[in-house]
């Protein structure tokens, strides 16, 4: 299959043109670090205590209370590689440096304009590799390439200044923008991170991840080369800050966004993305199913500092009027290509829902609960044919390889209740996903594998063991799992329990569940509740796995707690605003911030105060603050 | 030691007299079941959908939406033993019968008056055993017995009609009430449930628990006799509905209540108790430390349908002006006796904090974080003597035996951070608690053992294993454990993760943690958040342990979900009000309650709708509702 063959064959009605969106300045000179050491924090303005929300944007910006954006420098890049981190500055003068997913939004020196999108951090790296051809056009014709293409290896970063359009002051249609496409340069081998890793080359993205995770870049390369990790980084999403998903790294979390036909607007979804990454989402998935799928995704992609995942069959289904039986490989392929060219970093593909597995779900308590799985089961039934994603899987690999889009092999037959956990349908599909993993790897396409769902605690570890065996150690990406079905309204908790345990046993990324699961579309508050619950689960898993440096964060907070450094406790908290608000609910006076008790026990019954007295009576040293603690130590 | 010797030696300034409080009528004739079968629900009024809150009470009453209080009958008691359960009546006409901790407050036929307290359900059973002597007096002298005692075996249930006093319309001093005391009848052997169990006798309380748990009463007796379970039931708390804590039973949860010197009132604490049991608390602990300790506890006890636990050293410390070094065994003993006579069902006793263990905490990150542990460590340091609770432990056993108060051997040296988990101090104390367990058992006193605290996931199972080994299989009662320290404001979640896992591995009761942990005193909303998180953890543990019948609840909810019976989903939820509110936030119209989708996915993308179509296309039977599902099946 040639690249021409993978151009869309359907009109792209709402994508007339597209321009580069590199207008923001993520790293102005004034914010450059003033020391060669990655551990020396750059001089920065005073810490504000509330996020600012400029009138011209619709998203939340500004640092978290007590934190500032700082940079670690790549050791081998003469200071050129600068990896953003969250630095919590303590009252002792020490700092705690934490992994940061929030992107430039928490940097007060960056001018955020969602109509223009983020700066293309990775564009120079992609250009330097010289293995992409780039297409720029004012419009996309039917079944053909866009006009005005540039040659291979040329990346058009010149910005024509045309912002993403707004309609009536709201985020709306994308118009007047040039289309730019990246594709594989045929003579250089696979442009995927897997391709480079297998060829022994460490990309800038891998170096970035190494610094970010506190691991040698060579470890990053080796994990990717072995298929044990992925680094989702579509060449058309240069705005993203590289991250890796794999057992050797910190456990990651994903936040699902996206409107449905019933509710929500594009503007709300962009803010949800910024909001989710502010609280710690490592990736987001745009699961929109209503109108404006393409435009919603464009706004999210151009503004997202984290990899974006999608489920392309949703768009394909919209294209055929919502009727599963009318789906075709061509319609699906075109949706995939549109999304590849837009910059989607990973795609859920339900290629393991084989026709012969569908009857295995008939006696289940809750049938098929994956939307993609149900759509494909309906298609297989209607046509009495094998799932077209399975039969066309090699073609799909060729497409994804051309943009370095990562497969997220979907678990279309995951259980929808604890009653259906680890059943024949689920495990049959898992075996097929293992087979497809090897097919994708032959094409140098990165792969992760999705997992359940609803699983009682005693069956959680078995899920990881089987996935590792059947899927050859490809990274596992699980939804929850929910450990009980009795608590709608609290499924962020029912599933955080399962998520922590499955993460401990080796799951690489946890897809969050919000309190609205099973009940409705999450709003901004639900997104935050889900992200926080999953950051807790992921960190609990990191501690249990013994990730080097993970405990430094806990230790710094415990030290602050024992020393009654209340402000430091708040600032080190996963959610500083809530921690402070809860404390201040009963003891709002400034003096209480240095009190050696809180309202929970009162002054006479504070165990920590008594314990400190015991310690000082016995001549033991007083507790000290940490030195510079780096939760993700530098390589 | 004679009984005279265990009378208080300090003035009880705020307990001048006390009367029986048996004025409520929990089971009026009109509410009696009309069929001999335990599974036939009695005829009941229509289900209300909002809790009523009569003007004359300060507590929440009325059933949960879609639920009603029903009764299971004891098989061997000619229908005399009636065990209250929560019956969820589905739209299919079927019912799901669930364990219910809410007491008479959810029964609309019971006239609730917190000034008079609940009916003494167990009084006739205690009387019938004839092994208590009862003291009734108008006041308590210093160091002597109260006036007006009755003879052994006589229980004064006559109510003089004097309500608990209110001050300015608020819950206030207890006055004008007679003191009534239960004590061991010396010629009948231990009156404790452990004593009866060891003698091979099945008490009414054990029968009640058997029906409630769906297990044979003989199993209940055998578990108690072996020390593997406790049935906390002070003879002076006849208002409580019997329940058991042990590995063979459903995992239980405790909610901590109680004011501190800084905030909260008695009225608030009584409502928190009712509120906590409404959402599922199996026991409550009154941890009040401010003024009015005794009065607060009296109000809670007289109104509590669940066992009440305390930490007597808090009251003892208040008696000596808040100075740990001035504590004496006599002051402590008197506080214990006052609480025994008031009806406290279990007491946390930090007898394992030995003087030689205190130095082991000196190098810890967070020292001693148990209030009791810190107080006793301070006392040991000040006096350079062994912990008086350890040296007087046998006397304590004699006192607790006389009222059937259960030991909750406190973990005064539990870790306060993941950094300190499973350290030498913690494990040294645990070994001592094992030694004390056997001492208590020699006195026929029931025992459970408290545990951590803060523990990373990979060390959780080891805690249970060590506790079982060192403490001879006595029930384990753990606080959380919190699995990370980085999320103040969300410690109900950090700890629900640990609680689910430790419950799965055999912990019998989980002490809840609220979102306010480490930050302030929980309010009513925090209590609910903590209880719900812990009900989730306990149920997830029950599922993982394979408790017979536990999954019936999940299955009934999953069936309702798959059949789009929205109202049934809400009614079966742990929190029906929140589930409905979340759904109605985006789809409030009544028609949406029968829609085959929700706002999360919209109509075209509802996997369950598609899955049902696949199923009907293939001629598979439609999903059916459950029959009468009993989550705790009858023996």
Automatic annotation (TrEMBL), chains A, B:
Region annotation Disordered: where it falls in the sequence: 1-68, 129-168, 615-635
Biased composition (Pro residues): 42-51
Keywords: 4Fe-4S, Iron, Iron-sulfur, Lyase, Metal-binding, S-adenosyl-L-methionine, Thiamine biosynthesis, Zinc
Residue spans crossing the bilayer: none
Pathway: Cofactor biosynthesis; thiamine diphosphate biosynthesis
Free-text cofactor note: Binds 1 [4Fe-4S] cluster per subunit. The cluster is coordinated with 3 cysteines and an exchangeable S-adenosyl-L-methionine.
Molecular function GO labels: phosphomethylpyrimidine synthase activity
UniProt keyword annotation of Transmembrane helix present: no
Residue stretches of biased makeup (Low complexity): 8-41
Positions with a binding annotation for substrate: 256, 285, 314, 350, 370-372, 411-414, 450, 477
Role: Catalyzes the synthesis of the hydroxymethylpyrimidine phosphate (HMP-P) moiety of thiamine from aminoimidazole ribotide (AIR) in a radical S-adenosyl-L-methionine (SAM)-dependent reaction.
Family, as annotated: Belongs to the ThiC family.
Family matches, as PANTHER family: PHOSPHOMETHYLPYRIMIDINE SYNTHASE, CHLOROPLASTIC (PTHR30557:SF1), THIAMINE BIOSYNTHESIS PROTEIN THIC (PTHR30557)
Stated name of the protein: Phosphomethylpyrimidine synthase
Highest classification ranks of the organism: Bacteria, Bacillati, Actinomycetota, Actinomycetes, Frankiales
């Amino acid at each position: 299959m040639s690249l021409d063959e993978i151009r869309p064959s359907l009109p792209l009605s709402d994508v007339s043109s597209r321009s580069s969106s590199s207008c923001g300045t993520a790293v102005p000179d004034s914010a450059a670090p003033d020391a060669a050491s990655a551990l020396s924090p750059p001089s920065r303005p005073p810490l504000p205590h509330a996020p600012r929300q400029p009138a011209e944007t619709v998203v939340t910006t500004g640092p978290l209370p007590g934190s500032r954006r700082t940079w670690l420098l790549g050791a081998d890049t003469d200071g050129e590689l600068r990896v953003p981190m969250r630095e919590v500055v303590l009252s002792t003068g020490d700092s705690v440096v934490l992994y940061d997913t929030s992107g430039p939004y928490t940097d007060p020196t960056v001018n955020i304009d969602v109509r223009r999108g983020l700066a293309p951090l990775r564009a120079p790296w992609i250009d330097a590799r010289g293995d992409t051809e780039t297409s720029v056009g004012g419009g996309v014709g039917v079944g053909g390439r866009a006009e005005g293409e540039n040659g291979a290896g040329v990346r058009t970063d010149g910005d024509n200044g045309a912002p993403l359009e707004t309609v009536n002051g709201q985020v709306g249609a994308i118009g007047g923008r040039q289309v730019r496409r990246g594709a594989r340069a045929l003579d250089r081998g696979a442009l995927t991170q897997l391709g480079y890793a297998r060829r022994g080359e460490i990309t800038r993205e891998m170096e970035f991840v190494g610094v970010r995770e506190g691991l040698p870049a060579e470890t990053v390369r080796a994990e990717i080369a072995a298929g044990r990790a992925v680094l989702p980084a579509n060449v058309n999403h240069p705005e993203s800050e590289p991250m890796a998903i794999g057992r050797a790294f910190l456990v990651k979390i994903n936040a699902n966004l996206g409107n449905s036909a019933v509710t929500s607007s594009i503007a709300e979804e962009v803010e949800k993305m910024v909001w989710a990454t502010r609280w710690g989402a490592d990736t987001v998935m745009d699961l929109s199913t209503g109108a404006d799928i393409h435009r919603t995704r464009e706004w999210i992609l151009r503004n997202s500092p984290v990899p974006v995942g999608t489920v392309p069959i949703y768009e394909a289904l919209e294209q055929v009027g919502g009727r599963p039986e009318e789906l075709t490989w061509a319609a699906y392929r075109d949706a995939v290509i549109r999304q590849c060219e837009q910059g989607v970093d990973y795609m859920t593909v339900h290629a393991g829902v084989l026709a012969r597995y569908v009857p295995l779900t008939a006696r289940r308590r809750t049938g098929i609960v994956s939307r993609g799985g149900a759509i494909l089961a309906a298609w297989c039934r209607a046509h009495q044919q094998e799932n077209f994603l399975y039969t066309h899987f090699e073609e799909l690999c060729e497409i994804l390889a051309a943009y370095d889009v990562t497969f997220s092999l979907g678990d279309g037959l995951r259980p929808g209740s604890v009653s259906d956990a680890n059943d024949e349908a689920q495990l049959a599909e898992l075996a097929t996903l293992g087979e497809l993993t090897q097919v994708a790897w032959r094409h140098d396409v990165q792969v992760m594998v999705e997992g359940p769902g609803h699983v009682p605690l005693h069956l959680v570890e078995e899920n990881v063991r089987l996935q590792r065996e059947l899927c050859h150690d490809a990274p596992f990406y699980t939804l929850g799992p929910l450990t009980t079905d009795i608590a709608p309204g609290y499924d962020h908790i029912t599933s955080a329990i399962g998520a922590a345990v499955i993460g401990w046993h080796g799951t690489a990324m946890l897809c969050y569940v919000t309190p609205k699961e099973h009940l409705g579309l999450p709003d901004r508050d639900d997104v935050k509740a889900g992200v926080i619950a999953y950051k807790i689960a992921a960190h609990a898993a990191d501690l249990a796995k013994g990730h080097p440096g993970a405990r430094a964060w806990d230790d710094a907070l415990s030290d602050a707690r024992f020393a009654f450094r209340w402000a430091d406790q708040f600032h080190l908290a996963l959610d500083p605003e809530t921690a402070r608000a809860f404390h201040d609910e009963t003891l709002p006076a400034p003096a209480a911030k240095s009190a050696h008790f809180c309202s929970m026990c009162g002054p006479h019954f504070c165990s920590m105060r008594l314990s400190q007295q015991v310690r000082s009576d016995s001549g033991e040293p007083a507790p000290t603050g940490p030195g510079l603690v780096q939760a993700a130590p530098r390589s």
